Amino acid sequence: MPKSILVLLKVLVWCACLWAFVNLVWGAATNNLGPDPTATITFSTGLATLRLLTISLAITPVRRLIPKLNWLIRFRRLLGLFAFFYATLHMLTWVALYAGFDVNAMSVDILKRRYITVGMAAWLLLLPLAATSTNWAIRKMGGKCWNRLHKLVYLAAVCGVIHYWWQVKPGVLTPLTITLVLGVLLLARPVLAWSQRRRVRTVPA
Ligand code: HEM
Questions:
Q1: 12, 31, 127, 139: least CB-packed within 10 angstroms?
Q2: How far is ligand 1, taken at its centre, from the CA of residue 96, in Å?
Q3: Contact between 147 and 191 (Cβ < 8 Å)
Q4: Is the dihedral of CA 26, 85, 151, 156 positive or negative?
Q5: Atom of ligand 1 minimally distant from the CA of 83
């Protein structure tokens, strides 16, 4: 791919990733975050986390299906780091605006409200992935070990979706679309690996 196109794509991906954040900052600066700004910030950062996680998980299956799109791999780390950025903003919104930095209230929330427990688990699973996202960490850990650790992203995404379902009102189906997309992506991995093994076996020596 020509370098100029790659630079343009990088700029577009950065703009798309920053969109939710810029919207929130603009909304806060212009006093335009709706009747419940805390809920707006929580919803927007939570959704951005799930969307970015899902898009980053889609990159490997898409590359396997369409080898011409191999260049997408250049954006996976960026998308994953932005997912962690929004997850951290989301978690800090809870720390500051829901719990008011009260450690006791936070502990009770984590222990007693299952959607907070599983949300926290998702954030904690993303933490080592973000911490080992540098080239230095990949070299130090070795590709195999690094890849094994980074499989945790699937578990984090599943915890994120469960967290979403557990705090919407009964009968509300807003998390359905992202759940279906994630389900397809989780299934795609073993299915594509199986079909690749089959192809290798049927190619005559
Ligand atoms: C990967 C991690 C996470 C993802 C993907 C995620 C996703 C979401 C989403 C999409 C919502 C919006 C639901 C709605 O308003 O309809 C939400 C709400 C919420 N999340 Fe998370 N979340 C994550 C982690 C956390 C963590 C670590 C905490 C705090 C410990 C947390 C606390 C909350 C709270 C308090 C709400 C608002 C619930 C309400 O409206 O009563 N989340 N989350």
A1: 31
A2: 14
A3: no
A4: negative
A5: 1
48 to 26, 62, 149, 158: CA distances (angstroms): 16, 21, 23, 15
Dist. CA 135–CA 137, nearest whole Å = 5
Nearest-angstrom CA–CA distance, 33 and 20: 12
Mutate to test the pocket of ligand 1, among 90, 124, 154 (most ligand atoms within 8 A of CB): 90
Q: If we measure between CA atoms, which residue out of 83, 87, 82, 80 comes closest to residue 42?
A: 87
Per-residue pLDDT of the chain (205 residues; tens, 9 = 90+): 788 988 999 999 999 999 999 999 999 999 999 999 999 999 999 999 999 999 999 999 999 899 999 999 999 999 999 999 999 999 999 999 999 999 999 999 999 999 999 999 999 999 999 999 999 999 999 999 999 999 999 999 999 999 999 999 999 999 999 999 999 999 998 898 888 888 887 766 5
Atom number, ligand 1, closest to the C-alpha of residue 124: 27
